[in-house]
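Service request form, structural biology core

Requester: graduate student, group of Dr. S.
Request type: structure prediction, single chain
Budget code: on file
Notes: please return the result as C-alpha cells.

Sequence provided:
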Amino acid sequence: MVAIKFIRQSNEQLRHLPSHLSSPTAVFTGATQGIGLSTLRQLALHAVQPTCYIVGRSEGKIQEIINELKGLNAKGTYVFVKGEVSLLESVDECCEKIKGMIGEGRGLDLLYMSQGFLSFGGRDETKEGLDTHLSLRYYSRLRFAHNLLPLLSRAPFPHVVSVLAAGQEGRIYEDDLSLKHNYGVLACANHGTTMTSLVFEFLAKENPKVAFVHVYPGYVRTGIMQSGFSW
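Core staff response, request fulfilled:
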C-alpha cells in the first residue's frame, strides 16, 4: 500500500500541472459522504479551478457540501444534479442534464462513482425490476460510464473510477446475472465486483483513450454501516 505521505505529495502537485489537468471537469456519484465526499474535497482543495457535477437525491445536503467546497476553493464551480441513481431511468436523465451543462465541444476528465450501501437483507427490487443494492454497485455505474463516454472521449486524459472491490472477484451465475433466483449477500457482492472488472476490461479495449479504474480501498471508516442507504 502506498504511504499516505506520498498520496498527499501527489495531491499537492495537481495545481502545478498544465491547465487541462489542474482544472478538471468531473462528475461525482455517491459523494454525499464517505470516500466519494473525501475525494471531492481533495479535488476542490488541490485543483486550481475545478468544475464538479455532484449527483444526488437531497438538494439540501448537497448544498451544504457545495458551500463547504466553495470555502476550500472559491474558484471552483460546483453543480448539484438531482437524481435517484438506483434507477437507470434517472441515471439517463442525469446524464442528459450533464451533457447539456457541459456543452458541445467540451470534455469530461473524471467520472468518479462510489454510490452504494451495505445490505444484509434480502432482495429489494426497484420499480425497474433490479435489486437496489446490485443496481447501485453495478448497473447504475455502468450506465453512467456508457452514457458519458462521448464526453470522456473529448478529454485529453479521461478517467472512469468505480470504488468497489477490485481483486475480490468471485463466482457469478451466468444464467442469472441480475440474481432473480440466486440472490444472497455474497452472490450480490461477487456479481457487482466481477462484472465490473469484466466490463471495464471490455470498455478499455473498445475505448483505449479512456482509463477505466476499478478500485478496492480495503476497509475504510466511512459510516456506511450506520447509514444503511448511502448514495
